[in-house]
Amino acid sequence: MSFEIIKRNYDRGLWSKQMVKVAVIKGVITAEQYKEITGDDYQE
């Protein structure tokens, strides 16, 4: 899993914000990348 794949899936509606948040928790992407993908600040 990579930032590009997560972003593509989110943009296509296949991933929810919660799913992207789990990727941050697991260390796959950073909080900054979460904001880039969703447009929202990452909240723990």
Write a compact overview of the structure shown.
This protein has three helices and no strands. With 44 residues, the protein is mostly helical. The protein is globular.
Task: Characterize the structure shown.
With 44 residues, this protein is an all-alpha fold. It has one domain (3-38). It has helices at 3-11, 17-25, 31-38. The chain starts with a helix and ends in a 6-residue tail after the last helix.
Protein traits:
44 residues; mainly alpha
H/E series: HHH
Task: State the end-to-end distance.
Answer: 21 Å
The share of residues in extended strands comes to: under 5%
User: So what's the overall shape?
Assistant: globular
Structural class by sheet pairing and helices = mainly alpha
Q: What does the main sheet amount to? A: none
Give the topology.
Blueprint: H1 3-11, H2 17-25, H3 31-38
Helix pairs in contact: 2-3
